[in-house]
Specification:
By secondary structure, this protein is of the alpha/beta class. It contains 15 helices and 13 strands. Helices cover 39% and strands 14% of the residues. The strands form five sheets. Strands 8-11-12-13 form a four-stranded parallel β-sheet, sandwiched between helices. The chain has a three-stranded parallel β-sheet with strand order 4-3-5, sandwiched between helices. It has a two-stranded antiparallel ribbon with strand order 1-2. α1 packs across α4. The N and C termini lie far apart (78 Å).
């Protein structure tokens, strides 16, 4: 039977005061109750802990041994109590804050300076991120508070405090200085080359909704986003290698080979069953531990379809010791079937049809996730005579949709399929 922990507390006080009566006074108890508890403790442990005399009590060898352990335990408890009280009084401790770019520069930096002068014992840890990611970190318990830019939906479980109000001002380059001569409508700005924060930020969402409210399209020529500090960029072989090299060149982040690929395994996402897809990922890709271990990686791939293959790839990197994984995809989210040669047979199996980007990131196990926007992916066909099909990204089908299709239409050679259809 487990010994009540309160007995050890009473034992500690009796040993400190060398008296049942004085221990009872210190604990706000009575002497008979203290004596009874110590008799029970001795009975539970099967040994004598005290030598009782008319002048008080002293410890037996067994009692001295127990006291040496109990004293350490209670000293640790006292230290814990004092640390918690110090934290609550803001004398010591740490605070983690996630802040958007605008919030950081408009109000947070000045306030943090004053806070640090008033509470020098508090260690501050600031992470600069987009508003949605800052909110995500707060909801996950990764930070203590978040300074964000509104409008942004805030859950009822969180407390919201307004810090400062500000107005956004559009700034143009010298080539467009004539726009500032007079007041312009949103329609006048619709076809201008905007530079804006990246998709998924509150700034991008604000302008996108503002333009949509007036039945206008919001075209962004260049997206500027915040990327956590990372060590290198790696592509998922072979589908993500080209995009990874381009990403590394454009961002200035070093490019590295994170995987060795088994060249005898094909595209895993087109395998018929889930077990086959997962097993083939393990055979197909081998992370290079010496490159990955302890590193913060930007992982690039061309798509996320069901999310199962991607999750296994992420698991391989984690097991190889990757410290952080930030995934970027060189296509928009797949949300519709493809009838033109890519094996996407049922949109209900597509992960982007049922989950937000933040939810997908959590499901596949990455620290952050970003996709190429639909408006950017079509630029791949700029200055060519060809168009760019966006049907599987939700952009509409260029031809009529087949009424009769089946899962295995891409699982045999074209010549074999023609034979089957002619029978």
């Amino acid at each position: 039977m487990a010994v009540p922990y309160d007995y050890y507390r009473i034992f500690y006080y009796v040993a400190q005061h060398k008296s049942f009566t004085k221990a009872a006074e210190a604990l706000g108890n009575n002497q008979p109750n203290i004596t009874r508890c110590m008799n029970n403790l001795e009975q539970d442990l099967g040994c004598k802990l005290f030598v009782r005399t008319n002048h008080g009590v002293s410890l037996t060898p067994e009692g001295q041994r127990l006291y040496s352990r109990a004293a350490v335990a209670f000293e640790q408890l006292r230290l814990g109590e004092s640390e918690i009280r110090a934290d609550c009084s803001l004398r010591t401790g740490s605070i983690s804050i996630a802040a958007s770019e605008a919030a950081l520069h408009l109000t947070l930096l000045d306030r943090l300076g004053a806070f640090h002068r008033r509470y020098p014992g508090i260690h501050l840890r600031i992470t600069n991120d987009s508003t949605p990611r800052a909110m995500e970190g707060l909801l996950r318990g990764q930070v203590d508070c978040a300074a964000i830019t509104t409008p942004c939906p805030v859950r009822k479980s969180l407390q919201e405090t307004a810090l400062v109000s500000f107005r956004e001002i559009l700034i143009c380059g010298s080539d467009f200085h004539d726009l500032a001569v007079e007041t312009r409508s949103l329609r006048d700005l619709e076809n201008l080359p905007f530079v804006c924060m990246s998709r998924g930020t509150s700034t991008y969402t604000f302008y996108q909704q503002l333009f949509l409210k007036h039945n206008l399209a919001f075209h962004v020529e260049m997206e500027a986003g915040t990327m956590p500090d990372v060590d290198f960029v790696a592509g998922v072989p072979d589908s993500g290698l080209d995009a990874a090299m381009g990403y590394a060149r454009q961002s200035g982040i070093p490019y590295g080979m994170g995987f060795i690929k088994n060249k005898y395994i094909g595209r895993t996402f087109i395998s018929p069953t889930q077990d086959m897809r997962e097993n083939e990922v393990n055979i197909k890709l081998n992370p290079i531990r010496s490159v990955v271990e302890g590193k913060r990686v930007v992982l690039i791939d061309d798509s996320i379809v069901r999310g199962t293959t991607c999750r296994r790839t992420i698991d391989l990197l984690r097991k190889a010791g990757a410290k952080e994984i930030h995934m970027r995809v060189s296509a928009p989210p797949f949300v519709s079937e493809c009838y033109y040669g890519t094996d996407i047979d049922d949109k209900n199996k597509l992960i982007a049809n049922h989950h937000t980007i933040a939810e997908i990131a959590e499901i596949i196990g990455v620290d952050s996730l970003g996709y190429l926007s639909l408006s950017d992916v079509v630029k791949l066909a700029d200055h060519t005579e060809s168009g760019f099909c966006t049907a599987c990204f939700g952009g509409g089908y260029p031809t009529s949709i087949p009424q009769d299709s089946n899962k295995d239409r891409f699982e045999c050679k074209i010549s074999e399929r023609e034979k089957q259809e002619s029978v």
